Amino acid sequence: MTEVVKVRTKKDLRELASTGVLMAGGTDLLVQFQLGRKVARLIDVSGLLDGPPVVRRVEGQVQISAMAPLTKVIADLKGMLPGLDASAGLFGSVRIRNRATIGGNLGNASPAGDTIPPLVAAGAVAIIDGSEGVRSMPVSELITGPGRTALRPGEWIETIEVCLPVGEEGFRKFGTRRADAVSVVSLAWRWRRSVDGRLHEVTLALGAVAPTVVRAKNAEAELEDREIDDRVVDRAVAALRSEISPIDDFRASAGYRREVAGILLREELGFRGGPARISA
User: In what order do the strands lie in the sheet with 125-130?
Assistant: First the structure.
C-alpha cells in the first residue's frame, strides 16, 4: 500500500522531501505504476501552487513554476517562448497537459521529454530547492541519463528561468502519429538572423537521439555567422548527423533517427531536399 502525504508549505516539504517520491501531476508515475513500480510514500506537492504566480517576467527573462500544470504555464506565457509553446502543443493529450508539469518532465529525465529540448536550446536554468537550501543548475546539466538527474536527496525543482528570445526559436518533433505520441526525434532551435541573412547565436537541441537531450554544437558552428545556402546547410546537416548517438528500438532505427534529425534541421532552415514535411 502506498502512503500519500499532501504538503501545503515549503517548510513541510523540506522536512519530508527525502522520505518519499515527489508528485505534482503524476502522469509519468501513473505509467510507471502500471509497469510494476512500487513506491512506499508519495509526497503530493500540488497544494503548493496557491503561492507565487505561475509565470513572472523579470528583466528580459521569465521565471516559470516547475510545479504548475503545463496548460496553465502556456496560457500565462502568452507566446513569449514559441519553442516551449510548440512543444507543449504536442505534449500528450489535453488531459495530460492539464496535469503534467515541467518539473515532472525534467525529473522523469526521459531523452524524449518534449519540454526539455526547447529549454536546453534556450539555455534555461533550473532553480532547485531542498533541505540544504537553494541552488541553480543549467537544465542541460540537470539530466545525467535516462531516468537520472543531478538532484540530491530531498531536493526538487522549484522554478525554471529562461531568457526571452531576441530572434527566432521553435520546436519540431516526429512521432509515430500526429499527437499523443513519444518522440522518435525532436529538434529545438534558437538563432538571431541579421539583415544580411546571416545566423547568429545559434543553438540546436535534440531529443530521443542520445541518453539525454543534447546540443548539436558542431552543427551550430557550421551555421554561426553564415549566410544560409545549400552548401552551408549540407555541412550543418552532416555535422548534426555525425554528433548524435541514437539507438535502435521499437519506434525507429538509429539510421532512421539520424536521417529524420537532418531533415528537420534542413526544413527549419528553409531547405527541403528530403521527404515531405514530417512533424508530428
Answer: 55-58, 61-65, 155-163, 125-130, 135-138
CA distances from 123 to 190, 250, 266 (A): 10, 31, 22
d(C-alpha 173, C-alpha 151), whole Å: 27
* Cα–Cα distance measured from residue 141 to residue 148, given in angstroms and rounded to the nearest whole number: 11
Asked if residue 34 is part of any domain, the answer here is no
- CA 85 to chain centroid, in Å, comes to 11
Prediction pTM value: 0.90
Q: Which residue, 144, 163, 182, sits at the end of a domain?
A: 163
Q: Where residue 173 sits, what CATH number does that domain have?
A: 3.30.390.50
The DSSP code sequence of 56-108 is EEETTEEEEESSSBHHHHHHHHTTS-HHHHHHHHTSS-HHHHTT-BHHHHHHH
Domain interval for residue 121: 48-163
Question: 140-172, pLDDT tens digit by residue?
Answer: 999 999 999 999 998 999 999 999 999 999 999
